[in-house]
Write a structure and sequence with these properties.
The complex is a heterodimer of chains A (457) and B (112).
Chain A lengths: L4 E7 L3 H12 L4 E4 L18 H7 L1 H4 L1 H11 L2 E3 L3 E5 L4 E6 L2 E12 L3 E3 L12 E3 H11 L2 E2 L3 E6 L1 H12 L6 E4 L3 H8 L2 H4 L3 H16 L4 E3 L2 E6 L6 E6 L2 E6 L2 E6 L1 E3 L2 H5 L4 E4 L4 E4 L12 E3 L9 H18 L8 H13 L2 H7 L14 E3 L4 E2 H9 L5 H7 L13 H12 L3 H4 L11 E2 H6 L3
Helix pairs in contact in A: 1-4, 1-11, 6-9, 7-13, 11-12, 14-16
Chain B lengths: L6 E2 L8 E6 L2 E6 L4 H6 L7 E2 L6 E2 L12 E4 L2 E5 L10 E3 L1 E2 L7 E2 L7
Parallel strand pairs in B: 2-8, 4-9
Antiparallel strand pairs in B: 2-3, 4-5, 6-7, 6-8
The chains are: A alpha/beta (457), B mainly beta (112).
The structure holds flavin-adenine dinucleotide and FE2/S2 (inorganic) cluster (FES).
The site of flavin-adenine dinucleotide has 38 residues of chain A, from helix 1, strand 4, strand 7, helix 5 and helix 6.
Chain lengths: 457, 112
């Protein structure tokens, strides 16, 4: 319906989306924000508006900071459409989404993709067993339901979110059977080379190290420099096996929480056929944009972790800068100095990133697994099968579909795409950027056919 | 089969509860949480079996990307349990194997 074209539709109500909406409303734009979750906040600030006080205490200060932004968003005048899953987006700003009432369409002069990140897949033996989840997934259980592990739990992998959850669990009184840390001491040394850029981010650095040392002080057994992770059990997880200081070790646990960083959620930008490049520092695909996040010559911008992993504070600033660019393109001018100030903040919040990327680089063996390991969880395709496709002439993820059903299940490659990219690149001995990715077509989320029947025009 | 649930939700006084049914068993769970969170903290074992080899599966990502939480809800198959909030009287069933995807339109496949 052409009579209701918004100046801006934002997809995602995390820090990037909320901040963008606030900025746009202040410039007089009409704004709608769609999010598939029932409440605003995105991943970091999930349930921030109504989290009970005890839970806020457990989650810590950074979480609480989201309340200010959420409040600003509520007062901005932007419309929030909750429970709205976007399944199609066109280059000229038509958005199809499905909510409780069926499928609907909304149009906008400008669109901001602010769909955030997801946990990087962790393809190791046994990772499909019940009792194995992402650490971020367990944190969602904590934030949204106050749920805690009922029995022995092990946290394994690397990255800030892993230590954050360990710290939050300790505050909640959860006992950890172990923290299996794949970060290597030698990487600290390499990463130090990046500290130059990190000096301005020192506060974050100190905060991060503080979390780890507090977990250590709580007498949680920490196995640093671990490798060769493997889940034990037949029908469900019974523990984890790994190599540590030259020895094979096992920790029994019914719940194993894996994490090795987060990667951009690029499903929408891929579905637009936008150009993406392989990001060798973050080991993932990122959409090619200008400084303000604009995709080519389109009316579509990408901000926050769905453009490249930058963290919550930088995500919010990027959302604002994208809006300023949209405004400028229309001939508008922002408050003098506003843009420069935002750019200064962005530089500050991203200073530590190169250091983190090196320090928490996931191990090769946990990204490019051995032949028997399942890489495509949906269609149960192993790394070995993917390698056998390469022997038959398969050049990249998109062609695996002619050899088998890899990437064709309901997750649409979200849980195998990066692994398949790297497995094929390694087998062909070429750079991941050369092998390409799956062709992502709308609908980017499976839609129940019944939704069409209900749809309102 | 595990002998206990993977998660527990500490009960708070005054917490609003709803009743849901999972595989014929009635569960009392806090209102406002997702079906996946409810099942992970009050039921045991797998929520579904995989499409190809029939191996047991349970929710993995809790944020709508892995599709391991697919269950049948009130007669509709293949619903994402982690993206659906519990509702009083909801009837949930395990999802087994391939028929799970009937009734779904998904990029490049199954679309009718
Ligand atoms: C599970 C998880 C937990 C995290 N926890 C923390 C934490 O505790 N602390 C921290 O510092 N960082 C955390 N992070 C990192 C986090 O990605 C960023 O710090 C921050 O949330 C990024 O902000 P954003 O606005 O870019 O995206 P997000 O906050 O991720 O927001 C994206 C939003 O887009 C919505 N969305 C996605 N796709 C669609 C679609 N197709 N249709 C409609 N809506 C859609 C999502 O529901 C989500 O609300 C976490 C990341 C993950 C994956
Ligand atoms: S648990 Fe991953 S989609 Fe629901």
């Amino acid at each position: 319906m052409a009579n209701d074209v918004k100046d801006l539709v934002v997809i995602g109500s995390g820090p990037a989306g909320m901040a963008a909406a606030v900025e746009a409303c202040a410039l007089g734009m009409t704004v709608s924000v769609l999010d598939e979750q029932p409440a605003i906040g995105g991943q970091i600030y999930r349930r921030v508006e109504d989290a009970p006080e005890a839970l806020q205490m457990i989650l810590g200060k950074d979480y609480g900071a989201g309340r200010v932004l959420a409040e600003e968003f509520r007062q901005s005048g932007a419309a929030h459409i909750p429970g709205a899953t976007v399944w199609n987006l066109t280059g000229d700003g038509v958005i199809d989404y499905v909510d409780a009432g069926g499928t609907r369409t909304i149009s906008a002069t400008n669109v901001l993709i602010a769909t955030g990140a997801m946990e990087r897949p962790f393809p190791i033996p046994g990772w499909t067993l019940p009792g194995v989840m992402g650490a971020g997934a367990a944190q969602i259980m904590l934030k949204s339901a106050g749920a805690q592990p009922a029995g022995p739990v092990v946290l394994a992998g690397c990255g800030p979110l892993l230590y954050l959850l360990a710290w939050q669990y300790l505050r909640a009184g959860v006992k950890l059977a172990g923290l299996v840390d794949t970060t290597r001491f030698s990487t600290y040394v390499t990463a130090l080379g990046k500290v130059h850029g990190a000096v301005t981010g020192r506060k974050d650095l100190v905060k991060g190290l503080g979390l780890i040392s507090r977990v250590r002080l709580a007498r949680v057994p920490i196995y640093s420099g671990a490798s060769g992770l493997e889940i034990l059990g037949e029908d469900h997880a019974e523990g984890i096996r790994f190599r540590h200081k030259g020895k094979s070790r096992e920790i029994p646990a019914g719940l194993v929480l894996l994490h090795q960083g987060i990667v951009p959620n690029t499903q929408l930008s891929w579905s637009l056929r936008a150009e993406h490049r392989w990001d060798a520092a973050q080991l993932c695909w990122t959409p090619v944009t200008d400084d303000a996040g604009r995709l080519g010559e389109t009316q579509i911008h990408v901000a926050g972790d769905s453009r490249r992993i930058v963290g919550a504070l930088a995500s919010a600033i990027q959302g604002r800068l994208s809006v300023l660019a949209m405004h400028e393109r229309k001939g508008g001018t922002a408050q003098p100095g506003r843009k420069a100030e935002l750019q200064r903040q962005l530089a500050r919040y991203t200073a530590l990133r190169p250091f983190l990327d090196v320090l928490y680089r996931p191990l090769d063996e946990h990204r490019i697994p051995a032949d028997h390991v399942t890489v495509c969880r949906c269609e149960e395709v192993t790394a070995g099968e993917v390698r056998s496709y390469v022997d038959l002439g398969c050049l990249g993820p998109n062609q695996t579909k002619s050899f088998g059903r890899c990437g064709m299940g309901p997750c649409q490659g979200r849980l195998c795409g990066l692994t398949v990219t790297e497995v094929i690149a390694a087998a062909r001995k070429v750079a991941p950027g050369e092998v390409g990715y799956y062709r992502i077509r709308p609908p980017i989320k499976p839609i129940h056919l019944g939704s069409f029947a209900q749809s309102t025009s | 089969m595990t002998t206990e649930t993977l998660f527990l939700i500490p009960q708070k006084a005054g917490q609003a509860m709803v009743r849901i049914e999972f595989e014929g068993e009635t569960l009392r769970v806090p209102d406002g949480i997702s079906v996946a969170a409810a099942l992970l903290s009050s039921s045991r074992g797998a929520l579904r079996t995989s499409i190809v080899k029939g191996t047991p599966r349970a929710p993995y990502c809790m944020m709508g990307v892995c599709f391991e939480c697919l269950v049948e809800i009130d007669g509709i198959p293949a619903r994402q349990g982690c993206m659906t909030l519990v509702r009083d009287g909801m009837i949930i069933k395990r999802q087994s194997g391939a028929p799970s995807l009937d009734g779904l339109a998904s990029g490049g496949k199954n679309g009718k």
